[in-house]
Amino acid sequence: MHRDTMQRTRTATRRRASLVAAALLGAAISAAGQASAAFDDGRLWRVSRAGTPDSYVLGTIHVADERVAQIAPRVADALARTRTLAMEIVPGQAYADELDGLETLSGGARLEPLIGPAAYARLRVELMVQGLRDDTIERLKPWAAMLRITRADRQPDARSLDENLFAAARARRMHVWSLEAAEEQAASFDTVPVDSQVALLTHVLARRDSPLAATEPAIAAWLRGDLRAIARLPAKAADRFPEMRVHYTRLVKHIIHDRTTLLHHRLFMPLRSGRVFVAVGASHLPGDDGLLAMLRRDGYRVTRVW
């Protein structure tokens, strides 16, 4: 695969991977499924400590919807006070249909035997509409197929809040930095047990009102700045579909909790210098195990701005 094609495919993987955070906003729940009272409300926080210039943390929602994509005045003001934009993954400029090893099954494995002929037939129809070839679809990992479905309704020219922040930072000639690599993000999905990947994919195919496919509840909660409501979304889904509880729990652990720990680790040194604007999915922020509580335990004062 040529270098430019590899770059486009890695960009596509990054953007598709980020979409699951939008579908799972609120996945930062404890292992026991209880939402914490810590940092229940808000979207933007100032992170301060004596002798260090202020930094800011914004909880974003990774969907290209104009209701949540615009940069609010308080967010713009905070961005103007900083020098570095730190994001989960720096947004790319285009999708690509080609795939690389991050999204494909290894050793000649095929997707249809994993999910069954009926589910595969539905998936094939949906992904062919997106322009994927048969030989591409049959090699997809279950999680990669699921993410391709969740971004199916995206308009070609639509931007998310993350992408608008990236554009604004570039216009200000700020340093923009990814907190994780595409390989790390893909590895997070790979660690989800295969039986859960299969169950979640088939659930999305059968139930388009599942949290993995429906974003309206997450958008409504984000617009209210209601992180508690966001945090309850996976638990509510498990109440509706008890047979899916173990699979949601596993996905939350690997895609939200484990990655929150990584994001915190990557921010440790940059925040000591200050003037960092952190933009990560809102699901990484609430709760005693969320990013904001971690920063407070590091000795920072974490104050809601918006």
What would you note in describing this structure?
With 306 residues, this protein is an alpha/beta fold. The protein is built from 14 helices and six strands. The protein has helices spanning 3-23, 66-69, 73-80, 112-115, 117-129, 134-137, 142-150, 161-171, 182-190, 194-206, 216-224, 227-240, 245-273, 291-297, and strands at 44-49, 52-60, 84-87, 175-178, 276-281, 301-304. A hairpin with a 2-residue loop joins β1 (44-49) and β2 (52-60). The longest helix is centred in the C-terminal third of the chain and has 29 residues, at 245-273. The relative contact order is 0.25. The model is unreliable at 21-37 and 93-98 (pLDDT under 50).
Describe the secondary structure blueprint for this structure.
Blueprint: H1 3-23, E1 44-49, E2 52-60, H2 66-69, H3 73-80, E3 84-87, H4 112-115, H5 117-129, H6 134-137, H7 142-150, H8 161-171, E4 175-178, H9 182-190, H10 194-206, H11 216-224, H12 227-240, H13 245-273, E5 276-281, H14 291-297, E6 301-304
Parallel strand pairs: 2-5, 3-4, 3-5
Antiparallel strand pairs: 1-2, 1-6
Helix pairs in contact: 1-7, 7-10, 10-13, 11-12, 12-13
